[in-house]
Design a protein that fits this description.
By secondary structure, this protein is α+β, with helices and mostly antiparallel strands. The chain contains six helices and three strands; from the N terminus they run αββαααβαα.
Length: 120
């Protein structure tokens, strides 16, 4: 029964991408490898193997779409930008100059709260 349910759920994004949607309806499509720099997102996108129950994984893993009802669009946009920044510079050599990641001071508390939740 779980397999039939999985077949009914069609991904809403291109293969290899994830759609992140804010509480106010803004959506951001990012490469899955970039989004998975957040352990929270990575866990939501994992499909459990070896289990035949309906709870074998999150719906997000089947659709590649994650909704964050408590995160505003501007904040989620900054989180996506940070994930891209992290993906770009995570393995850069120490000699390479890594630019500072900047964002507006008005967003500090909200961005820090979202980053804490997403563990990024």
């Amino acid at each position: 029964m779980a397999d039939a349910r999985r077949n009914e759920q069609q991904p809403n994004t291109e293969p290899g991408t994830v759609k992140l949607t804010s509480g106010d309806g803004f959506s951001f499509i990012v490469p899955k490898g970039v989004a998975e720099h957040s352990p929270t997102i990575r866990n939501m996108l994992q499909v459990s193997r070896g289990s035949s129950s309906d709870a074998a994984g999150f719906t997000e893993a089947l659709t590649n779409e994650i909704r964050f009802p408590e995160i505003k669009g501007g904040v989620l946009e900054k989180v996506c930008q940070y994930l891209i920044y992290k993906h770009r510079y995570v393995n850069s050599p120490a000699a390479e100059s890594v630019p500072e990641f900047k964002f507006d001071l008005e967003l500090v508390l909200e961005v820090l709260t979202a980053a804490d939740y997403l563990d990024c």
